[in-house]
């Protein structure tokens, strides 16, 4: 084990949920706490962010909480996202468009049923060099279920890539060996994010434990190993996106209809260090956490006035963030980690 790792730049997290209102005010300060200075913000609010004005207003609310973070903003793909909107979004500095299949995850009720009507939108995104972010699952129906929904989606990924070869596409939060292979099989304009929690979880960890339940669900040990291998491979197609998803504890403790999402923001870089350390691959952690995503997204960011040191010291993940029924339970709550994040220069 290395004693300390000083990152040359803070972490860039390319899949961040911070919600809105009081939850936003609770969660946004934890972005920096986890070692992150660049946060790629998801648009699935209630209501979703389907206009340029909505996205820019949301960014202003985020900056009012912590203006030191570079917030990279996205639109929610819906019928209102026309080619004209894409051109306006590009001028406004919006980086991507997130596509949710209808009904597969949190606040996806307004999502996509068919991709064909969006081909003109994808063409405009390709022209503007914007990024298409895909939640890679098919809705459960017939032979499709939680465990194969991602693999069933992969032909759609390959079809969109074939039709729009210069469109930058990110397959979000991969959970299967099949997804990793599909991304490898595509050209250089297709990449993927891997979360911290999927480097630890399999089906046994969330079946019966709603705090480890997320979408897509964690799968089998061979799939977890494929994620670990990809994350530590040094392949620039694979980079960090936490998909940290805060939900009030009352929504995670439901006996039926528990919310899908694992909250990792407070210890984001420490969780990844733990996983890389177990494989003896700490020499590759900076590329995964800091470099590859920035390169793919061509990020222009504020200069961070602080730096991140990962220390090989035991610390215990707190049981809760916040208080009462709206408190959030972090991943591995109450457990010991062998790594901690230290923010230097504040």
Task: Describe this structure as you would to a colleague.
There is one protein chain. Helix 7 (177-185) links the parallel strand 8 and strand 9. Helix 4 (83-91) runs parallel beside helix 5 (119-128). By secondary structure, the protein is α/β, with parallel strands linked by helices. The chain has 12 helices and 14 strands. The strands form 4 sheets. A 6-stranded parallel beta sheet has the order 5-6-7-8-9-10. A 3-stranded antiparallel beta sheet has the order 1-11-14, with helices on one face. The model has no long low-confidence stretch (mean pLDDT 96).
Blueprint of the fold:
Layout: E1 4-6, E2 11-16, H1 21-27, H2 29-33, E3 36-41, H3 52-65, E4 70-72, E5 74-76, H4 83-91, E6 96-99, H5 119-128, E7 131-134, H6 149-163, E8 168-171, H7 177-185, E9 190-194, H8 203-206, H9 221-231, E10 238-240, H10 249-252, H11 268-278, H12 285-297, E11 307-311, E12 315-316, E13 336-337, E14 340-344
Parallel strand pairs: 2-3, 3-4, 5-6, 6-7, 7-8, 8-9, 9-10
Antiparallel strand pairs: 1-11, 11-14, 12-13
Features:
globular; 346 residues; alpha/beta
